[in-house]
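In this section we turn from sequence analysis to structure. A common task in structural bioinformatics is to predict how a protein folds when a small molecule is present, because the ligand can shape the pocket around it. The inputs are simple: the amino acid sequence and a SMILES string for the ligand, here guanosine-5'-triphosphate. Study the lines below before reading on.
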Amino acid sequence: MKKECENCQILKNIKNYTKIDYTIALVGNPNVGKSTLFNYLTGMNVRVGNWPGKTVSKIEGFFEFKTPDNKYVFKIIDLPGVYSIFSFTPEEEVTRNFLFLGSYDIALIVLDATNLEKNLILVFQTFDITSKVILALNLIDEAKRKGIIIDIEKLESKLKVPIIPIIASTGYNTNLLIYKALEIIQGKITITPAKYTQPPELEQIIEELKQEILEYYPELQNHPAIKWIILRILEGDKFIIEMIRKKAIKISSSQNIKTKSPDLLII
Ligand SMILES: Nc1nc2c(ncn2[C@@H]2O[C@H](COP(=O)(O)OP(=O)(O)OP(=O)(O)O)[C@@H](O)[C@H]2O)c(=O)[nH]1
Ligand SMILES: [Mg+2]
């Protein structure tokens, strides 16, 4: 088991800060404890409850994280819970648009340890959009009560992203979670999230379409989410198609792994 940063500290209810150092986007299926984690970190009191679909728009909060050498002000954004980011529902649209176009330094995906498999679609979809990700395996107290054992190291080696077991309702291991997130943001850990492949026929279609699109829109050449963009085009996603037509898709700060620059997106 990984050790917490013993001298690190989360300070909630912060009032006086002059600048925000980093932004975390909270992503996950409905009812996995995103708002519970948000409330624990920020000291706020947004709606939580044991039914899905409580958070319907994005909510911002702030906290400070003290390490032995420094202190950082974090903005954290609680996004609506979604099973996927195809943009079929208003919640999916909010979460998808923020993940793809918004300005954040890391996507923190909250997983339900009692229902892991159901969470993985969203995990892989998020990996397609950004490589700055960390996974929080929440509800491990419930999983233990139900006799569910998860081999975290094996799951980490498959997904190729750090996974931190937490209990959002008590704050257990949240120090370590934020410490690891900070290491990823600051490039101290480089991660390359696992990618899934489509059946070969579809992969070929994706590649052909990609070449065709790049001919007209060469600015998309190095876009890290290019495959995700192509899949959205294949689905007939009007919003994405319109953005490509307007040449409005640029690489946003969360997708730019090497440098921390302002959001480059212009709509
Ligand atoms: N036992 C236990 N319960 C938790 C934990 N984290 C959250 N919960 C409970 O799980 C339920 C759902 O939590 P929320 O924080 O509302 O979940 P959410 O992901 O924000 O849900 P939506 O906004 O609907 O997407 C609540 O009843 C919480 O009290 C945990 O670590 N352990
Ligand atoms: Mg919520």
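The pocket of magnesium ion (ligand 2) is lined by residues 34-35, 54-55, 78, 81 (CB under 6 Å). As an exercise, try to locate the residues that line the guanosine-5'-triphosphate site and compare them with your own expectations.
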